Amino acid sequence: MPEPHDLLRSLFQEAASTGQSRARCAPVELVARRGERLRRRRIATLAAGACLVFAGTGAAVAALLPGSPSTGVPAVTPSSPRPSTPPKLPKHPKPVSTSPRSTSSATRTPVPGRTEPGTPPATAPPRTGQGAPGASAKATHGTSPPSTAPPR
Question: Which range marks the domain in which residue 29 is found?
Fold first, then answer.
């Protein structure tokens, strides 16, 4: 049985025959340029991938190593020790006693600023410029020393 005439089918066949008659091969230069671009992209992608692989491998190896090598330079440079100066000798040396040292507090010489346990602390003489002897403590402590800051 013959097929009925289909308008849509005949239009598609006509478009295909027209396209076939107009179709040409692409110029050789165009095909060569496309191939060159594709080759450059492929090489760039492979190079970037290789760099990432090598960097990742290096980082993994560095993380797995037991210790990091020392740089040889300390973080803080130590200061050189200063030469000690010899102690100053007094002009008039004290006579040295030949008797053995005693542990009793009666024979010890008092050290300024230190008191022996069980003894009352020594009183210091009044300072000069703090007021006359006999002045009250409130009068000397209530005043403040003059300021060296410039006035505002």
Answer: 9-64
The pLDDT of residue 14: 93
For residue 80, being part of any structural domain is answered with no
Question: Closest Cα partner for 65 from 57, 73, 77?
Answer: 57
The per-residue pLDDT for range 17-69, each reduced to its tens digit, is 999 998 999 999 999 999 999 999 999 999 999 999 999 999 999 988 877 55
Count of domains in the chain?
1
Map the chain to HEC letters.
CCCCCCHHHHHHHHHHHHHHHHCCCCCHHHHHHHHHHHHHHHHHHHHHHHHHHHHHHHHHHHHHCCCCCCCCCCCCCCCCCCCCCCCCCCCCCCCCCCCCCCCCCCCCCCCCCCCCCCCCCCCCCCCCCCCCCCCCHHHHHHCCCCCCCCCC
